[in-house]
Amino acid sequence: MSLRHALLGLLSERPASGYDLLKRFETSLANVWPATQSQMYTELSKLADAGMISVSAQGPRGRKEYTLTDEGLAELRHWLTGTKPQRNTRSDILLRVFFLGVLTPEQARGYLAELTEMSEQEYEGLRQLEESIDWGDDPLSVHGRIALEYGLRFNAMRREWAEWAAGQIR
Amino acid sequence: MSLRHALLGLLSERPASGYDLLKRFETSLANVWPATQSQMYTELSKLADAGMISVSAQGPRGRKEYTLTDEGLAELRHWLTGTKPQRNTRSDILLRVFFLGVLTPEQARGYLAELTEMSEQEYEGLRQLEESIDWGDDPLSVHGRIALEYGLRFNAMRREWAEWAAGQIR
DNA sequence: TACCTCATGTAATACGTTACATGATTAG
DNA sequence: CTAATCATGTAACGTATTACATGAGGTA
């Protein structure tokens, strides 16, 4: 049920079309909440039916620009303050760790080495993203940077853990 | 597609019934791959149909004990070594961070304070779990401890990040 | 005998992914 | 005039959640 809130959140900044939202997802939210094109257009229709967003302008090629309604903003605020974020997080990366015993020690260490490398690469990717963005003082910049910092710390942590873990296996 | 591998993984240790697997999930894998009762029984039927597990014993109350077949073990090994782990991790916790700008600074800091507390509690829960378990040298103990260590480091990281983040908001 | 735990299953619904399908507008 | 980009949508399928439904066996 969070894709809907992601869309409401993006629309709280400024009105946008499905296509716009798709592009903005790719460059920001995709890291924390991946979604496909199909899913977005479907969800936008549902949100419009529910009165949380409304078509505020039409453009060429059937473009429909959506604007957040008061009901939509209320729903967004409620999600942010009134619901517990205790969401179950699935990790196939960690799931595999439980079963490394069915492999040879070499294979198991190989898997952990892959994780080390993956973490390094993601870390570097985020570093470059950080440098490429012109950070301002606006709310978006502040919170975007906070999320990015999470990614950096997370990947640094995971890298160190994977290296430590490889040492535990003999 | 990972629930199936979680079940194959558990059955690689020893034969078990759906009910047994359900209990073992609750006390170990639930943290990395939550699954419901319905889902498990359905998946076990599919795995049996696919020849990856087989009914090795029947007990009272219709109990069916499943055993991993050679095909099942091969599939498990293939998943571990031959498939790339998805780093597609959804996090509604982090998603909210992007939109804290629609709240007052007090509310935003309140949210981050909740995350700090949540991380502390999870950390403590894992510490207690760590102490309550009699760790041996068997593969299960080694890999279970590695996964647990990840949880500890992750929550420590998240706590520090949430405290830092609260300081970024004015 | 009554209650708890063991034990399995199905149905309805929601959410997510992949693929298919179509067409308008703009830039070179 | 051709290709890329803009722009929207539907269909089929797979996975996940919630609720419903049933009953055997052990124990107080």
Q: How many helix segments of chain A?
A: 7
Major sheet: arrangement of strands of chain A:
1-3-2
Strand content of chain A: 5-15%
Can you tell me the CATH superfamily of the largest domain in chain A? Winged helix-like DNA-binding domain superfamily/Winged helix DNA-binding domain
Q: What fold name stands as the CATH topology of the largest domain in chain A?
A: Arc Repressor Mutant, subunit A
Oligomer: homodimer
Strand tally of chain A: 3
Shape estimate of chain A: elongated
Pfam family, one (chains A, B): Vir_act_alpha_C
Domain Transcription regulator PadR N-terminal (chains A, B): 7-77
Protein name (chains A, B): PadR family transcriptional regulator
Organism (chains A, B): Streptomyces flavotricini
Describe the structure concisely for a colleague.
With 170 residues, the first copy, chain A, is mainly alpha-helical. The first copy, chain A, has 7 helices and 3 strands, in the order αβααββαααα.
Task: Describe this protein's structure.
The structure is a homodimer of 170-residue chains. Chain A is mainly alpha-helical and 170 residues long. Chain A has two domains: 80 residues, Winged helix-like DNA-binding domain superfamily/Winged helix DNA-binding domain (Arc Repressor Mutant, subunit A); 77 residues, no CATH class. The first copy, chain A, is 66% helix and 8% strand. The first copy, chain A, is built from seven helices and three strands. A three-stranded antiparallel beta sheet of chain A has the order 1-3-2. In chain A, a hairpin with a 5-residue loop joins strand 2 and strand 3. In chain A, helix 2 packs across helix 3 and helix 6 runs antiparallel to helix 7. The longest helix of chain A is centred in the C-terminal third of the chain and has 30 residues. The radius of gyration of chain A is 20 Å and the shape is elongated. The model of chain A has no long low-confidence stretch (mean pLDDT 94). Chains A and B meet through helix 1, helix 4, helix 5, helix 6 and helix 7 of A and helix 1, helix 4, helix 5, helix 6 and helix 7 of B. Chain B binds a DNA duplex (28 and 28 nucleotides) through helix 2 and helix 3.
